[in-house]
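Work package 3, deliverable 3.1, input record:
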Amino acid sequence: SQTIHQWPATLVQPVGSPLSLECTVEGTSNPNLYWYRQAAGRGLQLLFYSVGIGQISSEVPQNLSASRPQDRQFILSSKKLLLSDSGFYLCAWKSQLAGELFFGEGSRLTVL
Amino acid sequence: GENVEQHPSTLSVQEGDSAVIKCTYSDSASNYFPWYKQELGKRPQLIIDIRSNVGEKKDQRIAVTLNKTAKHFSLHITETQPEDSAVYFCAASETGGYNKLIFGAGTRLAVHP
């Protein structure tokens, strides 16, 4: 069966510091991968998605970036965090043949 | 691109009552409409979905209806229980390929005993 792992689960970072969140999927190949952000009490905002290694599409211009160095690995990064980057970040995957989206357990980021 | 509107943003019901959450979408090419439930501090999880080739789907106390002409779909929960309390998200997308799932803003449902 397929599983998705995301880490770290929580982190507190100062403004201006870098960020790296990592996500890996097991049990499937060539998944579509996604990063969503959920601000406190808000909906799910799509940040990036990827259909293959090195292929990244950005939905919202911001100081975040994403990379996909391997088929089942998706990384969310920032060089300098802003207060507004605080939120709950969710990695997700789906098969290219099906619609259901499976979420990781999320990473709660607090920028102080 | 796709835009999904969801109403209401909060919903409070008594245990045993029904709850209805409504969503509209903008892209007529969308053909897949899932509903996710998110409990506090946890990841969203799929509870039911519907594809555009059917108008209604039911799973025990949960049902979803779809009106393609009007571009809206609804979640119906009957005989609500306190454990139904959560945030519910609707979403829309095209299936296949890299088409992404666009979510509504969510509905916070509170079921009071």
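Chain B touches chain A at residues 6, 32, 34, 42-46, 49, 51, 89, 91, 93, 95-98, 100-106 (CB under 8 Å).
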